[in-house]
Amino acid sequence: MRIAIGSDHAGYELKQRLRERLIEQGHRVTDFGPEAPEPTDYPDVAAPLAESVVAGQHQLGIVICSNGVGVSIAANKVRGARAALCGDPWSARRARQHTDCNVLALGAYVTGHALAGEIVDAFIESEFEGGRHVRRLAKLAAVEAQYSEPTERPAENEAQPASAERSTELSPMA
Quick check: pTM over 0.90? Predict the structure, then answer.
């Protein structure tokens, strides 16, 4: 299977271990980075990875950050990507079987390496069941189309997220 994998700096070690595991299992793995555990912003990895999955260059993707939330949000911004943050094998299987998820998100700080391997295996080995789930995916696609319409972007200094008002000091885990 062609699998894309990537992380931010917090997920680097887990990404490396999972990449090696996938290669040993015989999968063709493309590493979207980073190449070292240097500070890396998760959208810079998760979005291009999700684009490659949606474009058919890879069959599935795996994205990793500290808790899995940031990479899942970034991947899900790509039209056609269905990223699921999973913390157990059952959820990973269900994500593929019922929602045809094509990107798995993991949290490196909350998921041990052995469990992460089991989650990845469950995700990769599962297939979309179709049937009643096709109708639901069509509804998800309609929601995505409705809320993905191009909008005017505010001027660069005009609108900032609420968090911009907070301190710019980073935690040691950032």
Answer: no
